[in-house]
Each structure stands twice: as C-alpha cells, then as structure tokens.
Amino acid sequence: MRFDEGYSGKVFIMSRPTHEEADAIIYGMPMDWTVSFRPGSRFGPNRIREASLGLEEYSPYMDKHLEEVNYFDAGDIPLPFGNPQRSLDMIQDYVEKILEQNKFPLGLGGEHLVTWPIIQAVYKKYSDLAMIHIDAHADLREEYEGEALSHSTPVRKICELIGPENVFSFGIRSGMRAEFQYAVNSGMYMAKYDVVEPLREVLPRLAGRPVYVTIDIDVLDPAYAPGTGTAEAGGITSKELLEAIQKIAESDLNVVGADLVEVAPVYDPTEKTPIAASKFVREMLLGWVK
C-alpha cells in the first residue's frame, strides 16, 4: 500500500504494482527541518523518481535488468512539517514494519538526520549491525547551535548506539576538528577524501555481517552534484561512486538496508544531481537486494 492511496503520479521506474510481492520497498523521507545552510532536500525523493524515468532498465555495471528485482515504491512518508522528533518517530515506525516483513528498506532523503531513526529500527533486528557511511561530512557533532537533532549529528548518534568500531566512513572532507579527533579516539573507521580504495580494503573485514549503507549525494564533487544543501569542493566523481556501489555488491556483505540522501533539486537547474541519484538507486537495487 502506498502512503497516498490512489496516487497516479511518478514512481521509481519499474516499481511493482503491489507491496506484497516486493522484496524491497522504496520510500521517501521529505524532511529538511534541521538543515544548517540551504533547505530543499524534502523535494529530493520525488525528483529522483521523475529522473528515473529516463534510465535504461538494464545495468552494464551489474549485468542485470530491473525486471530481475521485485521492489515497490511506497511514496513519501507524510512527515509533519517542522516537527523533527515526530518525523523521526514516524520513519522508525515505518522501517520497523518493513523489516518485520523481511523486506529490504531503501530510503530516499531528505536531510541526513533521517538515517538516525532507520538505524534504530535496523539495530533492533540486527544486534551485530555495521554501517558504511559515504559522505563529504563527518556528521559527528553532538549538537549544532544548541540543537541535538540536526543533520550534523546522525553519525555521532549512531556511533553511540551501535559502537564506533562498527561505523565506517568514507569520502569525508569536512567537519570540525573535534569531529576528526573523535573519529581517531573512538576507534571508528574514517577514510578522508577517497572512497573506492579504502572501501576495497575494509570490505573483507565486514564479510558476512549485516551492514546498512547510507550515501549522502554531497560525497560527489559539486561539479557532478550541485543540487545539494551543503556542497563541498574536492569530492569524488560519479564514476567512483558507481564503482563503490559495485564493490559492495560484489563483496560478501549482507546489506540489510540503504538510503540515499540530501538531493536538493532546486539548486541544480541542469538536473544532473537527481539524474545521477536515480542511477545510483538503480545500481543499489540491482546489486544489494538479494
């Protein structure tokens, strides 16, 4: 069932007609209530869906076709505008329901704080959970200007929940000095600037474990993804992110859920950001949904 029953608008390309037959559920989290610079990521999920209609259903990277994966686009969770805690509670409740049905949750953001309630839900099911975090920003603050609920804080919260030794960050090139010091002192893994090579080294350590993957579109250089709220120069290319998704798919990881966040289409009149994001979602579906 979609959140908006009777909806006849855009869904992600080749979405199955019913929730029941799906192995994976795509759902949107249109929230940007806590952003520190530019809002607009609440419009990301629907724009990614619209951009997906220009995709080929076949992936030469995975040598697979979308008809080989059963997934259902449930639409956007109707989050209450301006109410962060209630929004997070609704996200956690929904993801718990997906997991109870043994389906793969694939979330579209929305700001990065939305990953925090997802991990709370996934951790309830997988007590030995690890997380792969691909992002430009460390997101390790305890608060931002007095607010503990901020898109600058989700990874710190997740470290405190599942243990910093189970958090693996890649592509990081922005944050406070205290955040980088926390990464060193806590025992979490942080690869600065790059993604593919450090990921290749880490994946064998996670073999067989349940892993959640969160991707912030701003890990890409703004030349490839200008449509995001907090763009950071010096990022990776679209090709490198595609390779990272493929490396995860080829590994022995048990990927149990994923999200792609921080697409803010208003800042990208060329639409290259949602177009790239939709392709990444296609690869995530083909590579990670078993």
TrEMBL record:
Annotated EC: 3.5.3.11
Free-text comment on the cofactor: Binds 2 manganese ions per subunit.
Keyword Metal-binding annotated: yes
Keyword Manganese on entry: yes
Molecular-function GO terms, alphabetical: agmatinase activity; metal ion binding
Biological process, per Gene Ontology: putrescine biosynthetic process from arginine, via agmatine; spermidine biosynthetic process
Keywords: Hydrolase, Manganese, Metal-binding, Polyamine biosynthesis, Putrescine biosynthesis, Spermidine biosynthesis
Record: residues binding Mn(2+): 112, 135, 137, 139, 216, 218
Broad EC category: hydrolase
Superkingdom of origin organism: Bacteria
Recorded family membership: Belongs to the arginase family. Agmatinase subfamily.
Function (record text): Catalyzes the formation of putrescine from agmatine.
Name assigned to this protein: Agmatinase
Native source species: Salinibacillus xinjiangensis
